[in-house]
C-alpha cells in the first residue's frame, strides 16, 4: 500500500496527471508486486514563488 | 510534541476540522501522554484531480 | 481516503500505536464519513537528536 | 524539479528501488518534460507495526 | 541534496520567502557542506482554519 | 508555528544538527517574526540507497 507524493513547481495538465498516475502505479505493481488498488498517488503543485533552488526563489531566476 | 498531518481528497467543513482536531489531540494526550498544547495538527485538502487510486485520478472514476 | 501521518519524538509502544490507530480512524469515520478501510495511518518516531524546538535539539534540553 | 516520495510498509530490495527510480524519473521526463537530473526520488520503508489500515496495524492482520 | 519543507499557518511575503530561502541554503552550505544548487526549499502556507494547536483550530483562538 | 523538515541523504553530526537548528529558527524569528519556542525542526537522514537523482540511486553513482 504505497503512498506516493509528487511535488513540483508549476502545473501539470489533467492529462499529464492521468498518465503519470497510470504509469507510476503500473511500475509499482510490476516491479514491487504492490496491487494498484492499494496505491495512493497525490500531486502537489506549488507556485514558483514557493520553491527555491540555489538559495533563490524559482521566479527570481 | 507530535505533528499530525491529515491529508485527504475533497473538503471538510470547518466544524468537521474542529471536531477532528479536538478528538485527535485528545487521543494523543490520553493514550500517549502528549500534552495537547504541544500537538500540531494540519489538514491538507486536495482536489480530486490531484489524488489517484488504482492508477486513476479520483475524478475519473 | 485520508492519509494520516503522526510524527513524534521518542517512541510509542505497540499498544499505544494500536490504540491511536483505532481511535483516529474511528474519528475520521464518525465525523467525516471516511470509511475505515480507506484510511492509512503511519507513525514516524524520531530520535530526540533529530527534533528541535526553540532552536535546540530535544536532547540538549 | 519534482520531488517524489514513495512511502510503503515493508521493504524493497535494492534492485527494486533501482528499477522504480529509473522508471518514475523516465515517466516524469517523457510525460511532463521534467529533466531527470532535477528529479529527486526518495524511498521511506516503514515497519508494518508503523502502518495502519482499517484502524488496525498491518502486523495485527 | 537536502529538501527543506517550511510549513506554516498564515502567509509570508515574497520578500520574506526570498530572505529565508537565501539564509537557510546558506546555513546548509556553511554548516554541512551541501552545495546551494542542490538544495530545494519549499514553502507551504496553510490557512489558519487548517492548523490546530492544543486541540483547537488557530482561527478559533 | 512553523514546522521545518530537513531531509537529506547521508548523515549529519550532532553538532551540525545543533547549529542548523539554531540558525534556521533564528532566521524564522528574525525574518518572519515566528517565536523560536513555536518552531519545530526535524531532521530526516536517508541512506544513499533510498535517494535517487537523475534516475539513479545515489550509491550507484
From TrEMBL, chains A, B, C, D, E, F:
Entry-linked Gene3D superfamilies: Macrophage Migration Inhibitory Factor
4-oxalocrotonate tautomerase-like domain location: 2-58
The keyword Isomerase is annotated on this UniProt entry: yes
InterPro entries linked: 4-OT-like_dom (IPR004370), Tautomerase/MIF_sf (IPR014347)
Keywords, ordered alphabetically: Isomerase
Isomerase in keyword set: yes
UniProt xrefs under Pfam families: Tautomerase (PF01361)
SUPFAM superfamilies associated with the record: Tautomerase/MIF
Gene Ontology MF term list: isomerase activity
Family affiliation: Belongs to the 4-oxalocrotonate tautomerase family.
Protein name: 4-oxalocrotonate tautomerase
